Fold this protein.
Amino acid sequence: MDKIIEGKRSVQGVISVPGDKSIAHRALILSSIASGVSRVKGLSTAADVQSTLQALGDIGISIKKDSEFTLVHGVGIEGFEQKRGKDEAEIDCGNSATTVRLLIGLLSGAQIRARLFGDASLSSRPMMRIVSPLKSAGAYIGSIDGHLPVVLSGGRLKAFQYRVPVPSAQVKSSLMLASLFIDGTSCVEETASTRDHTERMLGLMDGGIQVEKFDLGKRIFIKGRKPLSCLDISIPGDISSAVFFIVSALISSSSKLEIRDVLLNPTRSHILDILKRMGGKIEVEVTQKKGEPVGNIFVESSKLRATEIEGWEVPFIIDEIPALAVASLFSEGSTSIRGAAELRIKESDRIKGIVAMVKSFGGEIQELEDGFIINGKGYFHTTEVESLHDHRIAMAASVLALAVNGKTLVKDAECVDVSFPGFYDLLEASTSM
Ligand code: S3P
């Protein structure tokens, strides 16, 4: 489906965005190995989350929904391992790297036989970063050059110590999930901080987790085979989705927007600090501090200035960079982002995607191997822009189109459903000429 966006529009009102995707994956997975029924409120209907839901169903976990809650019938660590006697599970992970990477860790730990596959984009993404440490720990895993399909055929894991060589919460979390099934204490180390939802959730569930921090990194010790208590959580709005509306309000005139109940975990909310240092008028009202911090965000039209993004900041804003690129197009000066080579192996090569999108609107951007430099100029022309079937590129292009006079066509815009079903309806409802 192609989408026509008509600019120039301002953004107004009070909105909320779907529940956080990263927390949703973890809540479903960890609840299924907890003992008893977990209650999860605010589970997003995003396609990625549905992939995890479906996968756990395929393994035999009962997950039911009523009007408010998703109820996950956890079977405990040992109950989950008992699924291993069954035929090889066929698991379609769709477009979701978090689903496949977290499940490879979980199922390897439990020695459940499975074949995991996904769509063309997911099949091109690297899995060796997960497969290799798990194989070293004792798992039997087959793959084609470290790509999907990945076949798990058991293998008893031994306690391990592993330093994650790339800043990746998916790799860290996958190994943490595997270690929950292992006798003894395993250690996962990261030298650059990444999102910490797995650590927080395991803490809430009385998992045998201990964290030792150093410089920018941490060592996570997990004592395996400890029964997990059930979850009762309400998932806050996804800041990686909210950012498209925040940027839209900042760059358009006469805009004033409130976004309610958004996740403010510091490993995710750093984009707000960056937009503020660019001159963005953004206020935050914290409404919950325990577990995962949550709050309301207030944004107004702002005069922005360029900034330099340093390497340590990248893992904290990895999913927000397409939206940040749009903000920098409307900022005075040159904004540079370096140390972001991971962007090349997301749902698409996002460095190439951002460069092509910006050029398509007549913007000035220089491609770097590990990022880009954007010259803010503030006026652009309408275009027909490729989404590359990448949800975050489609949403960034749509937000840019809103700030441009005339009609822009965003191609294959239905991909936004991967993370943000209802994105276009909300855009329509909260913007006016
Ligand atoms: C995620 C981690 C990030 C992020 C992805 C979700 C997660 O990936 O880009 O959208 O939920 O752990 P990496 O950890 O591979 O950078």
Notes: The mean pLDDT is 97. The pocket of shikimate-3-phosphate is lined by residues 22, 98, 168-170, 173, 194-195, 318-319, 342 (CB under 6 Å). Residues 361 and 432 are 21 Å apart (CA to CA). Residues 97-110 form the longest helix (14 residues).
